[in-house]
Amino acid sequence: MIRTPLRPLASVLKARESGENPDLIERENRRLRLEADRDRARARAETRLLALALIFMSAFFVLGARMALLAATEPLEMSRGFQEDISSARADIVDRNGVVLATNLATHALYAETRRMVDPARAARKLGEIFPDIDVPRLEARFTDPARRFIWIRTRLSPEQQQAVHEIGEPGLLFGPREMRLYPNGRMAAHVLGGASFGQQGVRAAEVIGVAGAELYFEERLRDPTQVDVPLHLALDLTVQATVTEVLEGGKRMLNAHGATAVLMDVHTGEVISLVSLPDFDPNARPAPPTEGEPADSPLFNRAVQGYYELGSVMKTFAVAQGIEAGTVTPQTMIDTRGPLTWGRFRIRDFRNYGPELSVKDVLVKSSNIGTARIMQPIGAEAQQDFLRRFGLLEPMPLEVSEAARARPLLPARWSDLSVMTISYGHGMSTSPLALAAGYAALANGGRKVTPTLVKQQGRQVGEQLVSPRTARAMQLMLHQTVQEGTASFARIDGYPVGGKTGSADKPDGRGGYKKEAVLATFASVFPAHEPRYVLVVTLDEPVDTTGSEPRRTAGWTAVPVSAEITRRVAPLLGLRPVRLSQADAAFELRP
Q1: Residue range 15-43, pLDDT digits in tens
Q2: CATH numeric code, 93-140+151-233
Q3: Residue of 448, 427, 438 lying closest to 305 (CA atoms)
Q4: How high is the mean pLDDT of the chain?
């Protein structure tokens, strides 16, 4: 930078010519320069002060706005230096009458902060006395491990256990509040409800999440913050469910069956009033899934939904209905029943010799395999598949439990002419008791398809017309005649006319053959027979009646009596008034 001299030569020469003192020029220039420096310094200082003032004012306004926002916000609980954002809220589940099936219960979890413990060895020993399943030496080692500062001991406590832990007097044993899922009816409707467990867990809260059944299927609905105060109404009737469970358990035990299942369904609404699968479990203490063996051996296995079986002669009802609907036969058409019916190297036989011919009605009443196969022969594979598919028997049957979507029927790889005949009487394809109930419901309600549901409905379903009302009425009459004259005679109940069909299917052995003397016995019934309201399917796994001189395994001796006792006990609970058999017969005769 070039500085201006304090004594410019031109100014000095001019001052000398005028006789002035040149030193005064330097003093004046110095004064002017100092004044200019002061002005510049003052201007810089004023600019800095203004900037600082603006910064302070901005910070003041920001802090003030933040404080006002916090003051207007709901207070949040802080715990141990961090905030837990875990919600345990979950809506109740109730039956159709409002009886609680599942709810949340306030409880506490137990944990330890080892740095606050006074006597870890004593604490471990005392906890072992309260909780016998605790490994005391291992727990003591964890308490004294310097690398551990926090240890979960129990995720839930009873009030008695909490009081006992209090009395230990150990400051390092602490309680965390939380909610647990409670099923006040224990095993009742276990396979419908499924169960719940803890998800994400914190010191002061834990998520309650569904793990199976309706709890898992309705997970979003049950945890929706806007609906947690609104119970989920199921179609189940707890009183009916308890009755069906009691009778089915007694039948299973008396007949030495490996398992049993029963489905009770409204034929008009599709509501599942009761669904029982045995053996069952307590969802309050849900067992672990099996890691070996057959899935069906586990109490977690839902036989009504997940169990796809060859159900035997109960499938003849659909074959006869298809023949009548197609116009190839009528209930009075005579069918050749001479046997055995030979197809290649295969032979189809009847349980007993029914003579050279039977009417279509008697084919169903007496349960002739040969007669049913001959009814289906002119119909063919393609039409049979289409008919069964429309009834929902070839696809997974939807129901509001998580297990339903994973269960699929087993179908023949090639639907041959032989398959047409064997499937007509219930062999060669599998279906579930729930799907069977839905199919019988369609025949019982006038021919309209209904979809099973666990949710309480407000009115009837109006589904696809699967068969004509005339065909449906003919099937209702023949099912009633099967009980009055045929294989299901033990289903006769004073005051409650029943229609139904038995099925006794040999159980597959897993190697392409069938077990000896091992039968899956099923009875599918509708009641009241003359004005069907409900369908009931009862299936017993390897039952045997030993009250006679020889063991009897067929459905007529096993599943039918159990089903009859269920119907006798639940019909009054369902509000059905008893009628005379003559009134039911007259109602059939008055139908067009």
Answers
A1: 666 766 766 766 777 777 788 888 888 88
A2: 3.90.1310
A3: 438
A4: 87
Looking at residues 379-401, what average pLDDT do you find?
A: 92
Calpha distance 251→333 (Å, rounded)? 38
Q: Would you kindly state where each structural domain of the chain is located, as residue ranges?
A: 93-140+151-233, 240-590
pLDDT for 93: 95
Q: Is the pLDDT of residue 376 over 80?
A: yes
Distance CA 533, CA 456 (A): 16
Phi/psi of residue 251, nearest 5 degrees: -65, -40
Q: How many CB atoms lie within 10 A of CB 412?
A: 14
Q: Quick one: average pLDDT of 447-455?
A: 94
Distance CA 257, CA 253 (A): 7
* Rounded Cα gap, residues 409 and 315, in angstroms: 14
Q: Residue type for 60, please? A: F
* Superfamily holding 240-590: DD-peptidase/beta-lactamase superfamily (3.40.710.10)
CA angle 272–466–454, rounded 5-degree value? 15
Q: Which residues contact 541 (CB under 8 A, 6 or more apart)?
A: 257, 258, 259, 260, 296, 303, 507, 520
447 by Cβ neighbours in 10 Å (0-12 / 13-18 / 19+) ranks as buried
| Residue found by looking up tokens 């979890």 in the block | 109
